Amino acid sequence: MALAVVAGLGIGHLISANSPTASGNQNFGFSGQPSASATVLDAGAVAAKVNPAIVNINTELGLQGAAAAGTGIVLTPDGEILTNNHVVAGATSIKVTSIGTGDTFTAHVVGYDRGEDIAVIQLEDASGLPTAAIGDSSTVKVGDQILGLGNAGGRGGDPVPAPGTVTALDRSITASDESSGSSEQLTGLIQVQANIESGDSGGPLVNANAQVIGVDTAASTGYQLNGRRSGAGGQGFAIPINQAIDIAHQIVAGTASDKIHIGKTAFIGVSVSDGQGGGAQVRDVVARGPAERAGLTAGAVITAIDGKATGSATALTNVMDTHHPGDQLTLTVSDASGAQRQLQVKAIEGPVG
Asked: Which residues are identified as catalytic?
Protein backbone atom coordinates (compact mmCIF):
# COMPACT_ATOMS: atom_id res chain seq x y z
CA MET A 1 0.00 0.00 0.00
CA ALA A 2 1.33 3.45 -0.88
CA LEU A 3 1.96 5.68 2.11
CA ALA A 4 1.57 9.42 2.04
CA VAL A 5 4.60 11.64 2.30
CA VAL A 6 4.46 15.10 3.78
CA ALA A 7 5.16 17.62 1.04
CA GLY A 8 4.49 21.27 0.55
CA LEU A 9 0.72 21.72 0.77
CA GLY A 10 -0.82 21.02 -2.61
CA ILE A 11 2.21 19.07 -3.85
CA GLY A 12 1.61 15.33 -3.60
CA HIS A 13 4.48 12.94 -2.97
CA LEU A 14 3.80 9.28 -2.24
CA ILE A 15 6.07 6.68 -0.68
CA SER A 16 5.88 3.51 -2.74
CA ALA A 17 8.37 1.60 -0.61
CA ASN A 18 10.63 2.08 2.37
CA SER A 19 13.36 -0.17 3.70
CA PRO A 20 16.63 0.18 5.60
CA THR A 21 19.95 0.31 3.80
CA ALA A 22 23.12 -1.26 5.07
CA SER A 23 25.48 1.68 4.75
CA GLY A 24 26.37 3.98 7.62
CA ASN A 25 26.20 7.77 7.71
CA GLN A 26 29.20 9.74 6.49
CA ASN A 27 30.79 12.52 8.50
CA PHE A 28 31.39 15.52 6.25
CA GLY A 29 33.68 17.13 8.81
CA PHE A 30 31.26 19.16 10.93
CA SER A 31 32.30 19.57 14.51
CA GLY A 32 29.79 19.72 17.30
CA GLN A 33 28.88 18.37 20.67
CA PRO A 34 28.64 14.61 21.16
CA SER A 35 25.42 12.74 20.49
CA ALA A 36 22.53 13.90 22.63
CA SER A 37 21.26 10.34 23.12
CA ALA A 38 21.60 10.57 26.90
CA THR A 39 20.30 14.14 27.08
CA VAL A 40 16.71 14.96 27.94
CA LEU A 41 15.25 17.31 25.35
CA ASP A 42 13.42 20.36 26.68
CA ALA A 43 11.11 21.12 23.73
CA GLY A 44 10.29 24.66 24.82
CA ALA A 45 13.89 25.66 25.44
CA VAL A 46 15.15 24.07 22.22
CA ALA A 47 12.39 25.65 20.13
CA ALA A 48 13.18 29.07 21.61
CA LYS A 49 16.79 28.74 20.41
CA VAL A 50 16.01 27.32 16.95
CA ASN A 51 12.84 29.16 15.91
CA PRO A 52 14.50 32.50 14.99
CA ALA A 53 16.55 30.65 12.31
CA ILE A 54 13.45 29.18 10.64
CA VAL A 55 11.45 30.65 7.77
CA ASN A 56 7.95 29.93 6.48
CA ILE A 57 7.86 29.45 2.71
CA ASN A 58 4.76 30.13 0.63
CA THR A 59 4.67 29.52 -3.10
CA GLU A 60 2.29 30.16 -5.95
CA LEU A 61 1.95 27.31 -8.42
CA GLY A 62 0.95 29.30 -11.47
CA LEU A 63 0.31 26.45 -13.88
CA GLN A 64 -1.83 24.54 -11.39
CA GLY A 65 -3.62 27.66 -10.15
CA ALA A 66 -2.75 26.59 -6.59
CA ALA A 67 -0.54 27.48 -3.64
CA ALA A 68 1.84 25.51 -1.43
CA ALA A 69 3.63 25.97 1.87
CA GLY A 70 6.75 24.66 3.54
CA THR A 71 9.65 25.53 5.79
CA GLY A 72 13.29 26.55 5.43
CA ILE A 73 16.46 26.78 7.52
CA VAL A 74 18.52 30.00 7.52
CA LEU A 75 22.18 29.33 6.63
CA THR A 76 23.52 32.88 6.29
CA PRO A 77 22.53 36.31 7.64
CA ASP A 78 21.92 37.56 4.07
CA GLY A 79 19.28 34.94 3.41
CA GLU A 80 20.63 31.69 1.99
CA ILE A 81 17.91 29.21 2.89
CA LEU A 82 18.09 25.41 2.91
CA THR A 83 14.86 23.56 2.13
CA ASN A 84 13.44 20.59 0.22
CA ASN A 85 13.25 20.70 -3.54
CA HIS A 86 9.63 19.56 -3.38
CA VAL A 87 8.75 22.61 -1.26
CA VAL A 88 9.57 24.95 -4.16
CA ALA A 89 8.93 22.61 -7.11
CA GLY A 90 6.36 24.08 -9.49
CA ALA A 91 6.66 27.55 -7.99
CA THR A 92 6.18 30.64 -10.12
CA SER A 93 6.46 32.94 -7.08
CA ILE A 94 8.12 32.42 -3.69
CA LYS A 95 7.50 34.48 -0.55
CA VAL A 96 9.42 33.80 2.65
CA THR A 97 8.74 35.07 6.17
CA SER A 98 11.53 35.08 8.77
CA ILE A 99 10.45 33.88 12.20
CA GLY A 100 13.39 35.71 13.73
CA THR A 101 12.62 39.16 12.32
CA GLY A 102 9.03 38.94 11.14
CA ASP A 103 10.02 40.31 7.73
CA THR A 104 8.69 38.86 4.47
CA PHE A 105 10.93 38.57 1.42
CA THR A 106 10.69 37.60 -2.22
CA ALA A 107 13.01 34.71 -2.98
CA HIS A 108 14.48 32.92 -5.97
CA VAL A 109 15.94 29.43 -6.30
CA VAL A 110 19.74 29.25 -6.50
CA GLY A 111 19.72 25.56 -7.42
CA TYR A 112 18.41 22.15 -6.50
CA ASP A 113 19.18 18.45 -6.39
CA ARG A 114 15.92 16.75 -7.25
CA GLY A 115 17.19 13.25 -6.50
CA GLU A 116 18.24 14.21 -2.98
CA ASP A 117 15.24 16.56 -2.49
CA ILE A 118 17.44 19.52 -1.53
CA ALA A 119 17.21 23.13 -2.71
CA VAL A 120 18.81 26.43 -1.77
CA ILE A 121 16.83 29.63 -2.16
CA GLN A 122 18.08 33.19 -1.76
CA LEU A 123 16.05 35.93 -0.10
CA GLU A 124 16.22 39.29 -1.84
CA ASP A 125 17.59 42.27 0.13
CA ALA A 126 17.90 40.31 3.38
CA SER A 127 20.45 41.03 6.10
CA GLY A 128 20.99 40.35 9.76
CA LEU A 129 18.96 37.15 9.90
CA PRO A 130 19.57 34.72 12.78
CA THR A 131 21.24 31.55 11.51
CA ALA A 132 20.84 27.92 12.51
CA ALA A 133 23.39 25.97 14.55
CA ILE A 134 24.41 23.05 12.35
CA GLY A 135 25.13 19.77 14.09
CA ASP A 136 26.79 16.54 12.98
CA SER A 137 24.33 13.91 11.77
CA SER A 138 26.97 11.17 11.91
CA THR A 139 26.62 11.22 15.71
CA VAL A 140 22.86 10.55 15.66
CA LYS A 141 21.82 7.29 17.32
CA VAL A 142 18.61 5.30 17.55
CA GLY A 143 16.84 6.40 20.71
CA ASP A 144 18.01 10.02 20.54
CA GLN A 145 15.35 12.53 21.49
CA ILE A 146 14.63 14.96 18.65
CA LEU A 147 12.37 17.88 17.84
CA GLY A 148 10.87 18.66 14.46
CA LEU A 149 9.94 22.30 13.83
CA GLY A 150 8.10 23.80 10.90
CA ASN A 151 5.18 25.49 9.20
CA ALA A 152 2.78 22.73 10.22
CA GLY A 153 -0.30 22.59 8.03
CA GLY A 154 0.94 25.68 6.16
CA ARG A 155 -0.81 27.82 8.75
CA GLY A 156 2.09 30.25 9.21
CA GLY A 157 3.10 31.86 12.46
CA ASP A 158 5.51 30.32 14.93
CA PRO A 159 6.85 26.84 14.12
CA VAL A 160 4.88 23.98 15.67
CA PRO A 161 7.08 21.65 17.77
CA ALA A 162 6.91 17.90 17.08
CA PRO A 163 8.95 16.08 19.74
CA GLY A 164 9.90 12.46 19.27
CA THR A 165 12.72 9.95 19.05
CA VAL A 166 15.00 8.49 16.40
CA THR A 167 13.72 5.01 15.50
CA ALA A 168 16.03 4.02 12.62
CA LEU A 169 18.96 5.22 10.53
CA ASP A 170 19.93 4.83 6.88
CA ARG A 171 16.37 4.38 5.68
CA SER A 172 15.39 4.45 1.99
CA ILE A 173 12.09 5.53 0.47
CA THR A 174 10.84 5.97 -3.06
CA ALA A 175 8.86 9.20 -3.31
CA SER A 176 6.77 9.91 -6.40
CA ASP A 177 5.40 13.26 -7.53
CA GLU A 178 1.81 13.04 -8.73
CA SER A 179 2.08 16.29 -10.71
CA SER A 180 5.12 15.37 -12.83
CA GLY A 181 4.94 11.58 -12.80
CA SER A 182 8.58 11.41 -11.73
CA SER A 183 10.01 9.73 -8.66
CA GLU A 184 13.21 9.72 -6.68
CA GLN A 185 14.91 7.26 -4.38
CA LEU A 186 15.87 9.00 -1.15
CA THR A 187 18.51 7.13 0.82
CA GLY A 188 20.34 7.40 4.12
CA LEU A 189 17.38 9.01 5.87
CA ILE A 190 16.86 9.42 9.59
CA GLN A 191 13.53 7.90 10.64
CA VAL A 192 11.76 9.35 13.65
CA GLN A 193 8.59 8.81 15.61
CA ALA A 194 7.11 12.31 15.68
CA ASN A 195 4.02 14.15 14.49
CA ILE A 196 5.55 15.65 11.36
CA GLU A 197 2.86 17.48 9.37
CA SER A 198 2.32 18.69 5.85
CA GLY A 199 4.09 22.04 5.64
CA ASP A 200 6.95 20.89 7.92
CA SER A 201 8.93 19.81 4.84
CA GLY A 202 12.25 21.63 4.65
CA GLY A 203 12.22 22.39 8.36
CA PRO A 204 14.87 21.43 10.89
CA LEU A 205 15.09 18.21 12.84
CA VAL A 206 17.12 19.19 15.91
CA ASN A 207 18.75 17.47 18.87
CA ALA A 208 18.67 18.31 22.56
CA ASN A 209 21.53 20.78 22.03
CA ALA A 210 19.38 22.82 19.59
CA GLN A 211 21.59 21.77 16.67
CA VAL A 212 20.10 20.89 13.28
CA ILE A 213 20.80 17.24 12.52
CA GLY A 214 18.34 16.75 9.65
CA VAL A 215 15.95 18.32 7.14
CA ASP A 216 12.39 17.02 7.48
CA THR A 217 11.30 15.65 4.12
CA ALA A 218 8.55 13.06 4.48
CA ALA A 219 6.15 11.27 6.81
CA SER A 220 4.37 7.97 6.27
CA THR A 221 0.88 8.01 7.67
CA GLY A 222 -1.07 5.39 5.72
CA TYR A 223 -3.31 8.03 4.11
CA GLN A 224 -2.90 11.13 2.00
CA LEU A 225 -1.86 13.82 4.45
CA ASN A 226 -3.56 17.08 3.59
CA GLY A 227 -2.88 19.50 6.39
CA ARG A 228 -3.85 16.99 9.11
CA ARG A 229 -1.71 15.62 11.88
CA SER A 230 -0.36 12.15 11.28
CA GLY A 231 -1.48 11.14 14.76
CA ALA A 232 0.41 9.58 17.63
CA GLY A 233 3.21 7.32 16.46
CA GLY A 234 3.53 8.95 13.04
CA GLN A 235 6.78 8.12 11.26
CA GLY A 236 8.83 10.97 9.85
CA PHE A 237 11.91 10.95 7.64
CA ALA A 238 14.71 13.52 7.53
CA ILE A 239 17.71 14.02 5.27
CA PRO A 240 20.87 13.97 7.44
CA ILE A 241 22.23 17.49 7.74
CA ASN A 242 25.78 16.50 6.71
CA GLN A 243 24.41 15.25 3.40
CA ALA A 244 22.14 18.28 2.95
CA ILE A 245 24.86 20.81 3.74
CA ASP A 246 27.31 19.16 1.35
CA ILE A 247 24.76 19.53 -1.45
CA ALA A 248 23.98 23.10 -0.40
CA HIS A 249 27.68 24.01 -0.60
CA GLN A 250 27.84 22.66 -4.16
CA ILE A 251 24.73 24.62 -5.13
CA VAL A 252 26.01 27.88 -3.65
CA ALA A 253 29.36 27.35 -5.38
CA GLY A 254 27.51 26.99 -8.70
CA THR A 255 28.80 23.46 -9.23
CA ALA A 256 26.31 21.95 -11.68
CA SER A 257 26.30 18.22 -12.38
CA ASP A 258 24.02 15.49 -13.69
CA LYS A 259 22.27 15.73 -10.31
CA ILE A 260 22.55 19.39 -9.36
CA HIS A 261 20.76 22.06 -11.37
CA ILE A 262 21.94 25.64 -11.02
CA GLY A 263 19.77 28.62 -11.94
CA LYS A 264 16.45 28.86 -13.73
CA THR A 265 14.45 25.85 -14.90
CA ALA A 266 14.03 24.93 -18.56
CA PHE A 267 10.41 24.41 -19.59
CA ILE A 268 8.82 22.96 -22.72
CA GLY A 269 5.21 22.97 -21.52
CA VAL A 270 4.14 19.36 -21.01
CA SER A 271 3.06 17.09 -18.18
CA VAL A 272 3.97 13.44 -18.59
CA SER A 273 3.59 9.96 -17.13
CA ASP A 274 5.37 6.68 -17.84
CA GLY A 275 4.51 5.34 -21.28
CA GLN A 276 3.20 1.77 -21.39
CA GLY A 277 5.93 0.70 -23.77
CA GLY A 278 8.58 3.01 -22.34
CA GLY A 279 9.23 6.69 -22.82
CA ALA A 280 7.42 9.65 -21.27
CA GLN A 281 3.82 9.90 -22.45
CA VAL A 282 2.43 13.41 -22.77
CA ARG A 283 -0.68 13.87 -20.62
CA ASP A 284 -1.24 17.58 -21.18
CA VAL A 285 0.29 20.33 -23.28
CA VAL A 286 0.40 23.91 -22.04
CA ALA A 287 -1.50 26.23 -24.38
CA ARG A 288 0.83 28.41 -26.47
CA GLY A 289 3.86 26.79 -24.85
CA PRO A 290 6.97 25.63 -26.72
CA ALA A 291 5.76 22.04 -27.15
CA GLU A 292 2.37 23.07 -28.54
CA ARG A 293 3.98 25.53 -30.94
CA ALA A 294 6.23 22.70 -32.17
CA GLY A 295 3.19 20.50 -32.86
CA LEU A 296 3.35 18.15 -29.87
CA THR A 297 -0.03 16.82 -28.72
CA ALA A 298 -1.35 14.82 -25.76
CA GLY A 299 -0.86 11.07 -26.14
CA ALA A 300 2.47 11.33 -27.91
CA VAL A 301 5.48 9.64 -26.28
CA ILE A 302 8.80 11.46 -25.89
CA THR A 303 11.57 8.87 -26.24
CA ALA A 304 14.66 11.10 -26.37
CA ILE A 305 15.90 14.69 -26.04
CA ASP A 306 19.00 15.58 -28.05
CA GLY A 307 19.65 11.86 -28.45
CA LYS A 308 19.48 11.14 -24.70
CA ALA A 309 16.91 8.43 -24.02
CA THR A 310 13.89 9.40 -21.92
CA GLY A 311 12.60 5.95 -21.05
CA SER A 312 10.25 7.18 -18.32
CA ALA A 313 8.75 10.32 -16.84
CA THR A 314 11.60 10.42 -14.33
CA ALA A 315 14.21 10.09 -17.08
CA LEU A 316 12.63 12.99 -18.98
CA THR A 317 12.72 15.12 -15.86
CA ASN A 318 16.37 14.25 -15.26
CA VAL A 319 17.35 15.16 -18.81
CA MET A 320 15.47 18.46 -18.61
CA ASP A 321 17.36 19.26 -15.38
CA THR A 322 20.57 19.43 -17.44
CA HIS A 323 19.12 22.23 -19.60
CA HIS A 324 18.30 25.91 -19.14
CA PRO A 325 15.93 28.46 -20.67
CA GLY A 326 16.95 29.33 -24.22
CA ASP A 327 18.37 25.90 -25.05
CA GLN A 328 17.36 24.49 -28.44
CA LEU A 329 16.16 20.91 -27.97
CA THR A 330 15.47 18.10 -30.41
CA LEU A 331 12.63 15.90 -29.18
CA THR A 332 12.23 12.37 -30.57
CA VAL A 333 8.52 11.59 -30.41
CA SER A 334 6.41 8.50 -31.17
CA ASP A 335 2.71 8.58 -31.99
CA ALA A 336 0.04 5.92 -31.32
CA SER A 337 1.07 3.95 -34.40
CA GLY A 338 4.71 3.87 -33.30
CA ALA A 339 5.86 6.23 -36.03
CA GLN A 340 8.72 8.47 -34.93
CA ARG A 341 9.44 12.09 -35.75
CA GLN A 342 11.69 14.82 -34.43
CA LEU A 343 10.53 18.21 -33.20
CA GLN A 344 12.62 21.31 -32.58
CA VAL A 345 11.69 23.06 -29.34
CA LYS A 346 13.23 26.10 -27.66
CA ALA A 347 13.01 25.86 -23.88
CA ILE A 348 11.70 28.85 -21.98
CA GLU A 349 11.85 29.75 -18.28
CA GLY A 350 9.33 27.73 -16.35
CA PRO A 351 8.20 26.92 -12.84
CA VAL A 352 10.93 25.80 -10.44
CA GLY A 353 11.98 22.19 -10.75
From this structure: 86, 117, 201
